Amino acid sequence: MASLPNPLPSLATSGLDLPPGSLVDNTMDGTWDEPLLWYANDPATPRTWSAMRAAGKPLGLLPVLIDGGRRDQWPEEWDLDPDGTSYPGDHDAEEVLNDYRSYNTEEFEDDPEHLVLAPRPEADGLDGPDSLAAEIAGQIIDVRGGESGPRIALVPARRSADIPASIGWTGPMNHENDVARLCAVLRSWEDRFDIRVVELGFDTLVVSVGRPPTTPAEARALAEEHYAFCPDNIDQGPSDDLAVYAEKSLLNQEAWSFWWD
Fold first, then answer.
1. CA nearest 196: which of 251, 155, 242?
2. Can you tell me whether residue 137 is helix, strand or coil?
3. Distances from the Cα of 226 to the Cαs of 97, 119, 170, 207, in angstroms?
4. N or C: which end of the chain has fewer CB within 10 A?
5. What is the pLDDT of residues 114-130, one digit of tens each?
6. CB 126: neighbour CB atoms within 10 A?
7. Under 8 Å CB-to-CB from 20, ≥6 apart: which residues?
8. Distance CA 236, CA 65 (A)
9. pTM for this structure?
């Protein structure tokens, strides 16, 4: 991962008014040479996201919710791999998706040899991307709050789409060893669909979608990208039909969730 100044080592003297929390430098190869993220010791409240974004962004820190999941696994136990993570900007989203697509050509109807990225939807979203991200974060906290609810984290990253790569996240390890390649797709979705990375778990990802597809054709084209990006969403979801997935999970949907087995 290409480096940028990391404010986390000097977080205690940064002037940020943070709740009690922990810096994480644990990786699958041992202790990393600097912290990868900070996260709170206690569950987030609905207002936490906006407060942390406003406080952290001037320092180059972006917020993300951290989900411990049913196994209560927090980032110290996530087998983070910053040493095995490249830079998202070194990869092309369309090439990455076609690499994945080549393993599952039977699922694609039109051109099984090559995927062309879905166009940016014509209709504007109802909210700005960052406002929507705060709203989706609040909804997650409302639904899954409590003692084991998600916690707020701050990550040194240039853009929201880079957050998984910035910490060397390995949630999709069974699908992709270098999460920066998936982040190249997230960057493309950030440009076309105004997504923001809202929550990470051990093997789960939630993004807000500021400009979702608003027509069946837009949603169906995007469904092919989703299948290449995260096959388990479809193969192990309620329906393995991409048209059904497009209608139920993508059309006018302001949040997308992913899970890798």
1. 155
2. helix
3. 9, 14, 18, 13
4. C
5. 899 999 998 887 789 99
6. 12
7. 40, 41, 42
8. 25
9. 0.94
